[in-house]
Amino acid sequence: MGRHLALLGSINVGGNRITMADLVGALTRHGFADVETVVASGNILFDPPTGVLEKELPDRIADIVRSELGVDTFALVLSAAELEAAIAENPFSGTGEDKFVHVHFLTAQPGPERFERLLADHAGRGDERIAPGTRALHIDYVNGVGTSKLTAAFIERRLGCQGTARNMRSLKRLTERLA
């Protein structure tokens, strides 16, 4: 199956604090190999356990984090090809600052009517540029993320699924490490 990347939602923000060493240990105990984290925000590189189907990985990882570390989260799992495709399809990559251009990876693919609702509800709330992607939302937080009203909760309510965002700077670093 090859090396994969897991992106955990809401790790080391709010009350969801875990150490990366504890995370590596928990996954290793459950058969994941060559586990390493990149930045303390829930980016995990790993080789999957033998006998686990790729589609089972997100739930398996989330269950381990919940049972071993006491944090209720979700995981999005990507192959190197999927990560590269998400970066390539981002229309704002190269036109905005890497620290402001994000891919908001989603747990499901929302229909076009959900995306239209997000655009309509966000109209007049900020200067962000937004485009749909493959199980992703591409965002250029033109004026920065910290003051934006386009929050994860706002996005999730309109799209009807959870997600976790990473900026282009982080995604490029993850791509290099995943290779």
Automatic annotation (TrEMBL):
Recorded coiled-coil stretches: none
Q: Which SUPFAM superfamilies match?
A: SP0830-like
The record, for InterPro entries, names:
DUF1697 (IPR012545)
Which Pfam family, any one, appears in the UniProt record?
A: DUF1697
Q: Which domain of life is it from?
A: Bacteria
Write down what this protein is called. DUF1697 domain-containing protein
Species source reads: Qipengyuania citrea
